[in-house]
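Go through this one:
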Amino acid sequence: MIFSDSYQLLSRLESLGYDRADRDPWWWPNSGSFETVIGAVLTQNANWQRVEISLENLRQEGLLGPERLAEYPQDSLEVLIRPSGFHTAKGRNLRALSRGILDAFGDFEGFREAVDREWLLGQRGIGPETADAILNYACYREAFVVDSYTARLLAALGWVLDGYEEVQSWMIEGLSGREAELFPGMSVAQAWARSHGMVVEYCKANRKGRRILVEKLEAREA
């Protein structure tokens, strides 16, 4: 195998320029906002470019906060988020999540301070990846996000891991305690955010088959 742990993999991605300095400091656009929560739901089974269209539609209607979104008519919301796909389910889930945030935490700031993974996983349409994305990118918590890009890259490198939790554990274990070496001056949470971002950026740029997915990494190793 080319890499024995995630630190080696992430160091290689950083050396290849996949830690994008032109993006949000936490990689996810407009991190730390309720828009991030919405985006984490909309991006389920969707291309991010399509999600951006939906987010802009919501922005134009002043719906990037839980108060208005919770009460916005379902039919009208579905029209606005249609570009992201699965608009009926996602619209229903967003309205329910917004109401849940207001009922349990009072407002988005209260949610950011007090929410935990268990609460998120208890909400309609929120699975482990979405919960961790919300915790890390919206709430700035130590939650390491992994996704299909991560699993595909690791499989191409010879690491065939079983399910979300196993992939996540592999990424955390190799990096744990060495975040400051890779991202000096950053918190662990931000280092994890940027780490996931590098994986996504690399896989998007090198997506056409296993050979292309690993050849830049191998070339760098030689």
Notes: DSSP finds 14 helices and no strands in the chain. Residues 34-138 form a domain with the Endonuclease III; domain 1 fold (CATH 1.10.340.30).
